[in-house]
Amino acid sequence: MFKILVVLIGIIVSQTAFAGRCAANKEINQTIPAGPFSEIRLNALAGSLYIEAGDDDEIVIEGIACSDETKYLDRIRIDTNARGEILEINVIIPYNDHDWHAGYARIDLTLEVPAAIANLVKDSSGNLEATGVMLSRIDDSSGDIRLRNTSGNLSLRDSSGYISVRGHKGNLKFEDSSGDIDVSEVDGEVIVKRDSSGHIEIEQVTGLVTVERDSSGDIEIEQVGGSVTITEDSSGGIRIRDVRGSVEIGADGSGDVRVRAVDGDFLLISKGSGDISTSDIKGSISIPDYK
Question: How many whole angstroms separate alpha carbon 40 and alpha carbon 53?
């Protein structure tokens, strides 16, 4: 089984600003036989990233490097390093060199890989899109993330930006600081370890759904094949419906709680402010006294 590890590190600059100040650019193209590798680790800097399924026997790297000064363009490059079954792909923009004085630089990158390769992604800036590939980890600082028809047990850490997942086979684990999380059509489990702010919407999941800690923003969960657990929610409404298992909410601070169409039990351990409403709960209901 192939695996891909993708690491992106960048500078927070808008794409509009890039487009207006790009004095020079160059194309970068590389094709590497995929046969020896079981894992790809991509270290990328500022710029957009697209990962998509390609041929089974090769890895195609295409990039457009851009700088505000032509003299720095040749120093922006992509290096590859094979270490046994691991292929490292490193974007080089020498920000820390003493003679580097470019106002900005970036590489917009497209990676075509065999569909069976898993991706680990670490990203600081720029949007990230992946379609039809296997993913194992994403570390992202800023920029939107959009995943379509992906697979693999994925751990995703994000500081800011919108996260959208449409169609995923495997378990998903999220740690998010800000920005909405929108997830649907998951054949596996979904775990939100931590979410500081932003709306969480999760639907059409075959396994368990767990939100361990949410600070602010609404939570909407529906059409879940397993049980739903929300360990701690500070503020924001909670709406849960169409759950084949049970629903448990540990500590809820403020915001309304609405739960309906649950085949199992509903347990709410502690509640701050906000209304509670339930309907069509087939199991037992346990709700504490609250003010």
Answer: 14
Helix, strand, or coil here: 118?
strand
Region of poorest pLDDT, from 10-19, 123-132, 196-205: 10-19
Residue 284: CB atoms within 10 A of its CB come to: 10
C-alpha R_g of the chain: 22
Report the helix count and the strand count for the chain, using DSSP H and E. 1, 27
Question: What is the rounded CA–CA span in Å between residue 198 and residue 183?
Answer: 13
Distance CA 239, CA 49 (A): 34
Report the chain's terminal Cα–Cα distance, integer Å: 55
Map residue 225 onto helix, strand or coil: coil
For residue 245 the two structure tokens come to 């298992």
Helix (H, G, I), strand (E, B) or coil at 57: coil
| Per-residue pLDDT tens over the stretch 236-260 | 999 999 999 999 999 998 999 999 9
Token duo for residue 64: 């457009």
**Listed residue (277, 251, 252, 249) closest to 265, CA to CA:** 249
